[in-house]
Design a protein that fits this description.
Blueprint (H helix, E strand, L loop, with lengths): L2 H10 L1 H24 L4 H4 L1 H9 L2 H38 L5 H9 L6 H12 L16 H26 L4 H8 L4 H9 L4 H17 L2 H11 L11 H11 L7 H28 L9 H7 L4 H30 L7 H35 L4 H9 L2 H4 L2 H11 L9 H27 L4 H8 L4 H30 L2 H6 L6 H10 L3 H25 L6
Amino acid sequence: MGSGDRLLEFISRRGFRKGWTVFNIAFFLLFIILPTVFILSYAVTDWSKIQNYVLNDPATMDLIIGAVAVSFEIAAIVTVIDFIAGLPVAWMMARKEFRGKQFLDTLIDMPLAVPTAALGFSAAIFWAATPNPPPFSLAVISSPMLLIILLHVVFSYPYMVRSLTAILGGIDETYETAGRTLGASRLTAVRTITLPLFRAGLVTGAILCFARSLSETGGTIIALATLYGRKMVEGDFQTGPTLIGLWKDASVSDPSLLPALAFVSILLIVLALVLLLVLKVVIMKVRLPLRKVWPTPEKLLSRGLFPKFKDSSAVLFLAAIVLVPSFFIFTYVFTGTPAQADWGLFIDALVTSFAVASVVTVVDLVTGIPLALYIVKNRSGRLAQLLDVLVNVPLIVPTAALGFSLGLFWSTLDSGAAVPILLIILAHIAFTYPLVVRNVVGAVEGVDPAFEETARTLGARPLQSFRRVLLPMIKGSILAGAIMAFTRSLGETGATLAVVANANTAPVYIVNLVNSQSYYLAAMACIILIIISYMFMLLLRRFTREEVV
């Protein structure tokens, strides 16, 4: 027996597999969930500080409540816009065949390839009414709230479209066909038959968009700094995450801000968990008047120019509101005034970001795949059900609050040159890990268990049946999760700044360039990041046809 066979036999032993499962569950709970919600313990251990420095300070409370309220208001508005604008596109992708469909499918995912730092700057220079707007920009928006709403729509729109497309693809069209054969118009059949079956997709899309908007930090900071033409200060327009970023930077010299930092982070985490749960319940339980029929107007809206107008408007929204602002930065570079820079600093930051993203992705795969397999294969068990719920927690916790929580949790680490990088890696693992797990869980659940059972009856060991039977079927989703984790880590700003204020990463470097009004250099750095990220998106398109959100 060769060494490879002996290793395979050892790994396939029941004892090793149980131990490996226990290790991965422990890793998930101790290194991801516990650090993510650790900030909640601050309310117990240091409540007196929160009471003295925050609750008893009306000015601080007003600032926190205002910033948090704005965050939830923006997230709600963005979610509604995404649904209204995304549903027609999702319907086209799921139910229609037309020339250029594959091209449109690619366009929908393109904003996902743009790191948040680059996207925030690109959208800001396109929309913001600055004193010296670049050529071809609209420069029509002076309201910070409107600017952030448009920016967050760009971030979240692909998530809504992908969620709605997936659920529409799973609804049998024969129900609509039966309704139309009984005399119902197309709109009536869709509204009374399809939409009631559509709530699961709406829940998924709404939660993803709401959470994505609520957690966004880096792009928001860059967009506001571009609008103001300077680094943000406390008196400026603030969201909850930007307030965390502002106070985290200031807390280095003023430790009295730590209770306020903790309180706003706790408030964001608790409200996000509660309200997103309420959102899910409301959407699933509410009874809309979908059974009422208006024959004449619905027949008119089902034919003629209206359907074409609806589809054209949806595609126009995708192009004008999502795609053009995302990639306007290329125009800015071509028309701007070149500037000299020491690109060595950016290269160092880029290498750091690339190394962090690579390590994070490997850890996500090595520990996330086994956990996903455990969840699926033990779906009826209470522990698996609990883990399946907990996996979603880092997705809905704002990254700035998550980074601050992780920073407090790992603050006992000894100081040293390697500690900041380690903290960044741990923070990035926390919010990218669910992307891998969710993708793998969805893929494995779509595979008939009979395939593996047949392999086992033919004498294959568990590892062999996984490698030869299951892995080829889910490798596309694994790759998709890996690439999504890599690009998400590569472009993250909020969690990085929250855990290490002066982190040497490419997105933080871009933030610093924008704060110093070095816009051309910031644009060049953004383009380099976009190109690297898009290369990985092309790999995603190459190795799997199924889009995973």
